Amino acid sequence: MPLPVVAPADADQRRARKPVVVYPNGTLKRPDLSRLEKAKATLEKIDEVIVPPREGATFRAPKGHFIRIVSVDGPQVGDLNLWNADNLAERFFSGKTRALHATHVSTGDRLWSTMPYLRPLATISHDTLGWYGFDQDGGGIHDVIGTRCDPYTNRLLSGTDYHHCCHSNLTRALANELGVSWKEAEPHVHDVLNVFMCTGFTHDTKQYFMKASPVRPGDYLELFAEVDLIGALSACPGGDCGDSHSSDAVPCYPLKVEIWKPDLAALADWPFPPVSPYGGEP
Questions:
Q1: Which of 52, 114, 139, 237 has the most CB atoms around its CB within 10 Å?
Q2: Mean pLDDT of 190-195
Q3: pLDDT tens for residues 89-139?
């Protein structure tokens, strides 16, 4: 039988201590979004990828180009991975992105890479769902909380195998892109940006929740590539995630990824980020 937990006499005083934001607003230099808008004056679409429902697909975006993840046929969320195209060891770091910005990201926030590189892989340059903010349940859009639905957790909780979890979709897509086996690709798949997903933590038990995404056809999230990128996107088997995930029963829809070339002359002196200058322990 577990021992009882007894609150100390000063429990209320301990709980009342003032919270301190670890990385307050203003710590990071904000990207010059007006410069990016000027560069978009002469956009030319150079590529387009359709991600089928309950599947994944990859895309490539050169440095200085724009990526648009677009809702096309119905409300659908997507799980996004990003890698430096020249070095797969440098990949999106959702945990540090969450710490530097917030649990949910939008226009002006940046998607940071893993250490020892720690630099923006992409900047969010436009978000048509930026109006949503946080709702009465504490839900917001585009979270960097959830890890991605995966077949291992599904097996743990249900005792069954499901092969269209976002982890599996991303792994298959990357394996096809690289021409390697599933097992070789899997270690490169990482925690995601949950594009269009509406999530938060319950007020009472603080459990991670999802609710139906407000995304509709025509909505998009736009990213500016700060380095040459390989991306992988899974059209989540939860559809709009208003009911369940890892399911063949809920309605699911495709997603579209567009790659746009801007006026590169307008970005001639854009401060593309170098890797972290920290040199390690002497």
A1: 237
A2: 98
A3: 999 999 999 999 999 999 999 999 999 999 999 999 999 999 999 999 999
What's the CA gap between 106 and 123, in Å, rounded?
A: 9
DSSP structure string for 34-85: HHHHHHGGG-EEEEEEEE-TT-EEEEEE-TT-EEEEEE-SS---EEEEEEET
Separation of alpha carbons 116 and 270, rounded Å: 23
Cis peptide before 116 (omega within 30 of 0): yes
Beta carbons of 75 and 255 less than 8 angstroms apart: no
Tokens 């369940």, located at residue: 244
> Nearest-CA neighbor of 53 among 259, 233, 258, 242?
233
Q: Tell me which residue of 273, 15, 267 sits closest to 119, measured CA to CA.
A: 273
Let me know: does 185 contact 171? Beta carbons within 8 Å: yes
Q: List the beta bridge partners of residue 91.
A: 83
Q: Alpha-carbon distance 88 to 59, whole Å?
A: 14
User: Cβ of 119: how many Cβ atoms within 10 Å?
Assistant: 17
In the numeric block, the tokens 């021409």 are attached to 179
Measured CA angle at 225 (ends 220, 228), to 5 deg? 135
Domain boundaries, the chain: 48-264
Place of tokens 């995966």: 150
Q: Tokens 């307008």 identify what position?
A: 266
SS3 content of the chain, % helix, strand, coil (to 5): 20, 30, 50
DSSP code of residue 144: S
- Would you call 20 exposed, middle or buried from its count of C-beta atoms within 10 A (0-12, 13-18, 19+)? exposed
Cα 280 from Cα 276, distance rounded (Å): 10
For residue 196, the tally of other CB atoms under 10 A from its CB is 25
